[in-house]
Amino acid sequence: MISRATMHGHQVLLLIVLLLVTSSSSDEPGSALTNILETFLNERLGVKKMQDHLDSSQFTTAPVVPHILLDNLADSLTKKFTDRVAVVQKLRDEVEGKWASLSRTNIFPECCSNVNTHEIDSNFQQEVDREHACNFGQGIQRSPSKYLDNDIVNVMQDNLYQYPSIKFQYVGTEEGVTTVFPKFKTCSSTYDPRFRPWYVEAATPEPKDVVIVIDVSGSMGGTHNKRTLLSIAKEAAKTVIATLNPNDRVGVVSFSDSAYSATAHANKIKCKETELALATPQNKAYMTSAIDGLSASGGTRYGIALSLAFDFFMDDDSSTDKVILFLTDGKPSDPENSILNAISAKNSLIGNKVVILTYGLGADVPGQILINIAKQLNHDVTAGEIKQGVYTEVTDPDNLRNEMASFYSFFSKSGRLTNPIFSVPYYDAFGLGLVTSVCLPFYYRSNLKGVTCVDISMSDLLSDVAFFGRTDSSYAFIIDSVGRLLMHPLLPSPQSITDDPIFLEVTALETSPSAKQVLESMLKGESGSDSFSSLRVVSRGQSILEGSQSDYVKSVYSWKQLMPNNFSLCVVTVESDIETLLSVTTNPNQNFLYHRLDLEKDSEKCEYFGVMATTGIFWCYLACQDVNQIIFAAGSVVLLSPAAFEKPYLQIIREETVQDVQQYKSYFTGGRVSSSVFKEFVFDYVVVSAYLDEIRLNQPDDLLDSVIWIYVGFNVGVFRLYPGTRLNQEYDATKRPWYKRAVAQKGRIAFSIPYEDAFGAGAVISMSKTIVAGRSSGHVSTDPVVGVMGLDFNMDVFYYYLSDTFPACLDSSNVGCFMIDDGGFIVMHHDWLNLENRHDAYNVHIIQKEPGVASVLIENTVMEKIGCVNHEVLLHQYTWLVSMQSDSIDYNNFVIYNIRETNLFVVLLKSLISEASSACRKTDGFLPTCVPYTTVQCPCALKLEFDFCSNKRYSDSDTDPPCAPFDEGPPVIGSFNTPSNLPQCYDYKCESRSERNCRVTSACRWNGKSCSLRPDDSDEKDASNSSTVIAVVIVILILVAVVAVGAICYCKRKRASPSDRHAASTSAHRNPTSGYANQALSIGTNEPPPAYGDVSLHKV
Asked: Which residues cross the membrane (predicted)?
């Protein structure tokens, strides 16, 4: 706990302010404010001292050699892919070797039973039993002939031990049973592994084009076991769709007297009437919905239905397997010969490539004609060899689902498949993010018996790509065998995916025309290199509200194919790029305090804004026999993000222990040695970051009066924070808005708008600035950014910045002043000093607050709209950019000042401006829909025209660059418990402060006449809890009273006349505030529109 010897009458901050204002009173006020901010940054934060420290450190430079970077990354990825493939091969070999000896004895529980644990497994994100497997699937009810044994499950256990980041391992059999390890709880009466995409793709890995033709004639309204035949047919058709994967394509036709395509009319997946849709999750959902909407009526005309089905294949000359699944329950009303001739005419146009599989539902189906249709008896032999289909008679409609969904077995190839199948990545419903299934089929005597799989997190597979970046201008991306982007810096990280993703082609994000040639070469499995100008996109901070900025850079693209999954990797570097390496041999300060204070025994802990923290630590060097051997550090803590570790993904899924923290401390306080845990350059930046403590020790006692947090983050995954507290284990400083904003403003001071501090310090503002690689003789603009240093402070400080440097703001002849950032968001406004609710100052745009001023700035191009394409949620996003060359511009009603070396502008409002026509509402983490033909409107978004059918963006839809990803990483803090009875870290002495000192002090609150500690930092917490309990009791009593009165009223109403009851009903309708309908409407009007199908963003 820090105790101050004396209490200054004014903060050092305010002395600096007054001194600088006095010394620069003759300067332009914008320059005076710049001087104050730079002095504050250097004196309070110590950015210049940290940069000087880096400049005095030993750095070496070396040219970046693209092909070496590519080879090293490719080797690392290939080994990881090969290791993961070995898991499923080992499992497949064990199953095949044991298959003959397996019995029908089931030794494993069903998965629907409870799991013998009550803890969430960090790797699986749910409760699992790592000692046992379990069985589930429809086949269990049919007495299967084979169940897996303990030897096979032991192999699964060994796999998980050897590769702790893999997910579920499972085996699905041809008898419909799935054995999964580890055991978890899942209950489903309809699950059948044979109808899951992973099973079907492994059994028949080649892509398939499928058109499902469903009879919806009146006879399909007949019933079987209380279900209509049409509902049974719908279930079967939807199961077929469920078996498909995004490499397949699908169409749906329904027929009676006429035939209809599911995409005959305007549809949200943008398919033409006879266009096959890629079987992506979005398109499958649409087709399933279309099938649900079918109803039975009319006759049965086969010919028009089959003719329409063939039209789906007319423009395709590929060798993909093409099949029509034709389902009916009755005789055709058109002649058989005309049906067969129509089939022949259509199929001959595409070389007789289409197979027809027919299904007769019920006992009254004319089997022979369906056999003849499957055989295509009248086919044109000159058009090519025909592949005859199969007729399946389904006398028991309950079997239709199994029969139709097994259609893929018709295309099974003979021979044993040896190459594993990597499924198209999908969103895991249990919260594992983006995963892929690596699968291999297994055989017995050349017959398919099932499929073995292991689920792999894409974060694990591609972590080397995600955390790649030897310089601040190099990156890598990876595509699959058909060109889908799996990893790119402009895409969200795999672990942040919260829904089935839309996979893009490379050219959607790599917009240079030359990128098309790179893609073509990558798809051919070639290696190569090329250089051309390409677009670099970076976030301006908070990507949703502030947008992105982009520029063209001469780049070198180097690529090669990866094995064994035919992925292709590309590394992008800047031409003539230089890599700067820091070299430190020892940690002279011997201080390293990890952020896991709950695992640290030597730290002096205290309470800071409601969380456990530390502001200082003492320890002994050697035996502490001399007072000079006692070392004091200023109490900062170090967090190492996953990027700092050799195996980044393991750091995400594992829980750190006391032993881990002790090992970290031993490594970072000793001499530099090789480590299998951390990447080689992490040691250097941990040591360099320790200089923050030395800077802190030279600060005055009252630093924490207005400064809340001080921090420095380096791009290698090292983050240091003062006062020290525990952070989220996955926290990544480089993904936070303060870091991105500073990088976008390289060399300038970057300020945030007011926001709520994650730790409870209320409304704060962040200021940050980049730190570049050290140089002994002056810096140049191309020096690479190695980190960012920043601090958070009370938002009221800016009010005094304005009033001290702009005396005209307090002149009664003027309206007042406000400050905006370069995105047009208000940082401080003259009427915000006495805000009752500080949330009213969050995300407020100048167009919303001062539309008249905004209109003038837009008209004079000081504020310009910029757009980017957000592929994550398929939106065209529009934000604003404020820029000016001069120091100030004087308009009739206001003057705008350019605060040099920052992202800020000050507006002195001389007189009121008539309200301009604008469209704006507060942007609380989502963007409203843009209003057509309106120039003055807040940041907004429009739906992006996207061709879901072929999973491609319309090439001519816009020319704006892609947006930077909205991935800001995990929350800053997790759900940690703070021990009770901790002493306060800092005594603010609020009661003795003046109004000004009170307002700029983070933990104090001005009550109009006096200063006191903020309620949530005092004993009022307990009072609040007590009030909550009392309130709950009162609510319960009220509810009891309401129930009692309701019961009495109900009894009276039972005895009331009909006219009385009618009167009561009429009264309720007349009263617009009575009843629940109005409440629902009120709630609904305050709710933001849903993300899917609307343009709103819900990412913050």
From this structure: 1029-1051
Number of continuous H segments (helices) and E segments (strands) in the chain: 30, 47
Instruction: Tokens for 594, please give them.
Output: 């990890």
As a whole number of angstroms, the distance between CA 471 and CA 69 comes to: 11
Which band of pLDDT confidence, cut at 50, 70 and 90, is reported for residue 1041?
Answer: low
CA-to-CA separations, 445 to 96, 148, 242, 473, 734, in angstroms, rounded: 10, 18, 29, 55, 55
In order of 628, 717, 732, 747, 821, the CA distances from 692 in angstroms are: 21, 16, 19, 19, 28
Among the four given CATH numbers 3.40.50.1820, 3.30.450.20, 1.10.3720.10, 3.40.50.300, the one describing domain 70-197+418-458:
3.30.450.20
- pTM of structure: 0.83
- In words, the CATH class of domain 25-59+583-794 is alpha beta
Q: Quick check: 887 and 30 in contact, CB under 8 A?
A: yes
DSSP bridge partners of 539: 548
Q: Provide the pairing of β-strand 208-215 with 249-255.
A: parallel
Checking phi first, is residue 655 left (phi over 0); if not, alpha (psi -120 to 50) or beta?
beta
DSSP bridge pairs for 324: 211, 356
Per-residue pLDDT band for 215 (boundaries 50, 70, 90) equals very high
* Distance between first and last Cα of the chain: 35
What lies within 8 Å, CB to CB, of 1092 at 6+ separation is none
Q: Give strand pairing partners of 923.
A: none
Q: 498 CB contacts (<8 Å, ≥6 apart)? A: 427
Domain locations in the chain as residue ranges: 25-59+583-794, 70-197+418-458, 207-264+289-411, 806-944
Q: Does the domain made of 207-264+289-411 have the CATH classification 3.90.190.20?
A: no
Residue 263 has pLDDT above 90, yes or no: yes
Nearest to 797 by CA among 826, 823, 764: 764
pLDDT digits (tens, 9 = 90+) for 915-974: 767 778 665 557 888 998 888 999 999 988 889 999 888 765 568 899 998 877 777 877
Cβ(1036)–Cβ(833) below 8 Å: no
